[in-house]
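dumping this here so i dont lose it
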């Protein structure tokens, strides 16, 4: 009876958009704009289709090359708009330089471990999960955190099984199912369900299925990375609907940055352009270095510690509150 009642409630909340948007549980931590439901669905489905087609067309090595090219342009665009928004203060840049130097020094002089791709992939899965709620302007709750854990833990297990010989897929399955069950019950009790909640519950279910016959890790990693890129492009595009001049500028930036990065990667792909068979472009496009750039991008996207350093003493209270 409890299950049937909450299924009815969930379905009702999804189709009644006013109920979904009226959720006032906790405080919305993001200041980003909400976009119309139908346009958000268009962006979501386009990103889903794009990532699926890429997975069908590309081999594992090629899908890695593809998300590296799109990734660097995505990172550069993020930094550009952070700078234009006045977020790149002196403390921000100082902290960025210190961390980037530490990361790259460690990788160059001590080598890269297989743990790097596992850690980066798991961190990106958490980044993916958090940003879905940021774009939907939904608050975090204990139930949603459990659902996120149910998605992230299998993702970690699939990557670890391929790169570091992690042999606990069976145990991971039951832990993830437990997290998902707890999360579904808590979400049902705490607030109305939204399409984002349903999407992440389904994503967790798919990750359970993948545990039974793990695919190439490049496909798993590539899918959520490509989905995330396209999702953000459409999100910002629709956010600028009422600012036509800014939208045109945004389209120009996206086009130019992606073309520039594709050209640089094309140059990087030819050995006669390289210096001593390495070349400075290796520090941007080699997979191991790309994972370091990814970690930096995620850390400087919304981490409270970075906000605190970037805002000076005035940002301490806001950073603690956001955390």
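and the seq i came up w/
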């Amino acid at each position: 009876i409890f299950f049937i009642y909450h299924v009815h409630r969930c379905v009702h909340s999804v189709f009644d958009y006013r109920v979904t948007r009226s959720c006032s549980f906790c405080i919305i931590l993001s200041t980003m704009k909400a976009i119309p439901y139908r346009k958000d669905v268009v962006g979501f489905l386009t990103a889903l289709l794009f990532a699926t087609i890429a997975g069908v067309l590309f081999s594992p090595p090629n899908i890695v090359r593809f998300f590296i090219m799109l990734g660097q342009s995505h990172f550069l665009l993020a930094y550009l708009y952070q700078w234009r928004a006045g977020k790149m203060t002196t403390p921000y840049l100082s902290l960025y330089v210190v961390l980037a130097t530490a990361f790259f020094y460690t990788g160059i002089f001590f080598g890269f471990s297989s743990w790097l791709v596992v850690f980066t992939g798991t961190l990106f899965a958490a980044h993916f999960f958090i940003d879905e709620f940021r774009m939907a302007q939904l608050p975090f709750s204990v139930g949603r955190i459990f659902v996120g854990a149910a998605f992230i833990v299998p993702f970690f297990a699939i990557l670890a099984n391929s790169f570091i010989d992690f042999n606990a897929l069976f145990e991971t399955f039951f832990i993830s199912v437990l997290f998902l069950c707890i999360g579904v019950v808590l979400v049902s009790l705490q607030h109305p369900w939204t399409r984002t909640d349903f999407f992440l519950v389904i994503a967790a279910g798919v990750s359970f299925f993948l545990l039974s016959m793990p695919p190439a890790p490049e496909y798993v990693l590539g899918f959520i990375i490509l989905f995330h890129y396209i999702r953000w492009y459409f999100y910002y595009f629709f956010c600028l609907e009422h600012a036509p001049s800014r939208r045109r500028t945004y389209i120009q930036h996206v086009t130019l940055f992606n073309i520039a990065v594709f050209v640089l990667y094309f140059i990087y792909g030819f050995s006669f352009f390289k210096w001593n068979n390495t070349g400075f472009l290796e520090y941007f496009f080699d997979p191991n270095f790309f994972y370091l750039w990814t970690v930096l991008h995620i850390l400087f996207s919304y981490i409270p510690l970075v906000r605190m350093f970037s805002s000076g003493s005035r940002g301490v209270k806001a950073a603690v509150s956001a955390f």
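The chain has 15 helices and no strands.
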